[in-house]
Write a structure and sequence with these properties.
Rossmann fold; oxidoreductase; globular; SDR_DHRS6-like; 7-stranded parallel sheet; SDR_fam; alpha/beta; binds nicotinamide-adenine-dinucleotide; 43% helix
Length: 335
């Protein structure tokens, strides 16, 4: 609101850059030179500039970001400023003594969730198709990596074997997007794949950990849905239907097992800066129809923002919350 602007670095948010007199002009100029409308930056206001570069798939290389930082600081690369905006605050021991299975742990929201649980003392069984991502997570956090396809019952067996007799928590984070295709276009293959990962595997993993949780008389499951579980204007028909199904699974399990000491909740993320939609060819019809609604959504979040919501519900801090669908979307759900 007042005073001189903070010095800008690669850790400053896109919002800080845009609001800075010289930084804003330089960043807008760069985007325009790249042939895009600077308005594309609006959803990324909350992200550190460095993360925008990571997500740009080479369109905004690191050297260009460094050049921008130099230019706005009179030719010098300033000492790294602490990142502006929100920062993750680890709650020591929140998961100490707990074994938590996290799917999708090699990337995005699952990785951030696994890292946070490990940092808070939990034993993490980290599951993903992508073995490389799991190896680096394991090196950084001590999580136990289980490369597995969650749509394969043999993969689920391996996950249970790695977890051992006692599973205290399950974060069903792995998921796949659709291509925004509406019902008249969606192919059987797309439908099957989206349901196999987002719905069937979620159910199968819950079924697999239930005996251990019922035995212990306690356990916490968080299923990751999406804004597409709350509305029809977020994605294509397959993804929308699959995430509505995730809410149905959550509510039924919460009802059935609440009296046995188990809690089941859903987090519904809005836009999050991850690689989920990296290789998709969007349906023209679907994207055209969704575009004007997507333009209005709040700025996208980071994976760590989502890990904060997921670990809250997963941990004992979520005591007394069962069957909830928590939008973690910067307010998209009230639009
Ligand atoms: N990114 C967003 O904007 C957004 C928005 C709403 C909901 N979500 C949901 O959040 C969850 C995490 O997505 P993300 O954005 O972190 O995406 P991501 O692509 O970064 O991570 C998803 C991970 O799931 C793994 N995975 C996919 N299929 C698998 C399978 N069959 N077996 C094992 N692992 C598998 C992938 O390898 C990947 O590492 C998903 O359920 C997604 O639907 C994401």
């Amino acid at each position: 609101m007042s005073g001189s602007p903070r010095p800008l670095s690669a850790g400053s948010t896109v919002g800080d850059w845009l609001d800075h007199p010289e930084g804003g002009a330089l960043l807008r100029e760069l985007i325009t030179e790249g042939g895009a409308d600077p308005a594309v930056l609006a959803p990324a206001r909350g992200l550190p500039l460095r993360q925008l570069a990571e997500l740009s798939q080479g369109r905004l290389p690191d050297e260009v970001v460094q050049g921008l930082v130099r230019r706005v600081n009179g030719g010098l690369l300033p000492e790294e400023q602490p990142e502006s905006g929100w920062r993750e605050r680890i709650v020591p021991d929140r998961f100490t003594g707990r074994t938590v299975v996290v799917t999708g742990a090699a990337s995005g929201i699952g990785r951030a969730t696994a890292a946070r649980i490990a940092a808070e003392g939990g034993r993490v069984v980290a599951v993903d198709l992508a073995a490389d991502g799991l190896t680096s997570l394991a090196q950084e956090t001590g999580a136990a990596p289980v490369p597995a396809d969650i749509t394969d019952p043999a993969g689920v067996e391996r996950i249970l074997a790695a977890a051992g007799d006692r599973v205290d928590g399950l974060a069903n984070v792995a998921g796949v997007s659709d291509d925004f295709s509406p019902a008249h276009e969606v192919g059987d293959e797309m439908w099957r794949r989206v349901f196999a990962v987002n719905v069937d595997a979620t159910m199968r993993l819950i079924r697999a950990v239930l005996p251990s949780m019922l035995d212990a008389g306690r356990g916490s499951v968080v299923n990751v849905a999406s804004e597409a579980a709350l509305r029809g204007s977020a994605a294509g028909v397959a993804y929308t239907a699959s995430k509505h199904a995730v809410v149905g699974i959550t509510r039924n399990c919460a009802f059935m097992y609440g009296p046995r000491g188990l809690r089941f909740n859903t987090v519904a993320p809005g836009g999050v800066a991850t690689g989920i939609a990296r290789d998709l060819q969007w349906s023209e019809f679907g994207s055209e129809r969704l575009r004007e609604f997507h333009r209005l959504i709040p700025p996208i979040a980071t994976a760590q923002h989502l890990a904060a919501s997921i670990t809250f519900l997963l941990s004992d801090d979520g005591v007394n919350i069962n069957g909830a669908v928590l939008p973690s979307d910067g307010g998209w759900s009230v639009q």
